[in-house]
Write a structure and sequence with these properties.
Layout lengths: L6 E5 L5 H10 L3 E5 L6 H5 L2 E2 L3 H7 L2 E4 L4 H11 L8 E4 L5 H13 L3 E4 L2 E2 L2 H4 L5 E5 L2 H6 L1 H7 L3 E5 L3 H29 L4 H8 L7 H12 L9 H17 L5 H15 L10 H5 L12
Parallel strand pairs: 1-2, 1-4, 2-3, 4-5, 5-6, 8-9
Antiparallel strand pairs: 7-8
């Protein structure tokens, strides 16, 4: 399967879906797409906007969906299965509970195709420069047939095994990311309270044993206390944290660090900070109870 021979349909041309579409076109794939909120961004980039998800399925050899929630996935699958070409592989990249994806997979299989669980790990700014990771799970033959598309989506990808293990990998990745964010926020706040030169702290610790990608990426955001526009909104992360909590309970795992982290993000949501970047938990730890303004000193 090569880019010049394959049309890829992208349903959900939002902050993640649109850079995925651009990456596919850059690798030579023809891209058709559908977005519930009309936009000419795909057409401007060289793709073709279609009127519905059903139209996308009718014209696609491979389908990608990346939408906000499980209900939206159900809507997409209900539409695409009415026009699906036999043998079509559907890469479902949304982060939703596995049991909902299993239902979607069964519907796609009944229509003559196959659906793979392929969540992507990384924020929107990481997708286009190919620094996000895709966790592909499901029937190996289907994964193999879509390999060129997976190669083009965004950076590295890994076959994680049977259907649903992709979601489990995403849970582990986001558990680490959220916990690292909370720890980095505490560390930056301590440096601030101790009156240290925050830029010097950042530069000194960037390559230390205790540093993380989150510390390096969100440190400058925390120093500036500039939480908007948000490359990674709290609301988006919070939806995944609830799924991780459920997975941990199913695994009978006690998670004191994660539980404290989730409680922090729960509080941020209560305070109406869903649209702010995840680094804004710095101000939550600092005792601020009002939504901070952009660039607040």
């Amino acid at each position: 399967m090569s880019g010049t021979q394959t049309t890829v349909g992208v349903v959900g041309l939002g902050r993640m879906g649109m850079p995925i579409a651009r990456n596919l076109m850059e690798r030579g794939f023809a891209v058709v797409g559908y977005r519930r909120s009309p936009s000419d961004e795909l057409t401007s980039a060289g793709g073709t906007n279609l009127a519905s998800a059903a139209d996308v399925a009718a014209k696609s050899d491979v389908i990608i969906s990346i939408v906000p929630d499980a209900d939206a996935v159900d809507e997409v699958v209900a539409a695409t299965t009415t026009t699906l070409k036999p043998g079509t592989v559907h890469l479902e990249m949304s982060t939703i509970p596995v049991e909902r994806k299993l239902r979607a997979r069964d519907l796609v299989r009944a229509a003559g195709g196959d659906l793979l669980d392929c969540p992507i790990s990384g924020s929107p700014p990481m997708v286009e420069p190919r620094r996000a990771t895709t966790f592909a799970s499901g029937m190996k033959d289907s994964v193999d047939s879509a390999q060129a598309v997976l190669d083009a989506i965004s950076g590295p990808w890994v076959y994680t095994g049977e259907f649903g293990t992709g979601a489990s990998f995403k849970y582990v990745a986001n558990m680490l990311m959220a916990s690292h964010m909370a720890a980095a926020a505490e560390a930056m706040l301590l440096a601030r309270r101790l009156g240290l030169d925050l830029e010097l702290v950042q530069d000194t610790l960037d390559n230390s044993i205790g540093a993380s990608a989150i510390w390096r990426q969100r440190g400058p955001v925390m120093r500036a206390r500039q939480w908007s526009p948000a490359p990674g909104p709290i609301g988006t992360l919070h939806e995944i944290l609830a799924q991780i909590d459920g997975a941990a309970k199913m695994a009978a795992l006690d998670t004191p660090v994660f539980s404290a982290t989730k409680a922090l993000f729960d509080q941020a949501m209560i305070q109406g900070w869903a649209d702010l970047d995840i680094a804004a938990v710095h101000d939550l730890l600092d005792g601020k109870d009002a939504k901070p303004e952009k660039g607040q000193p």
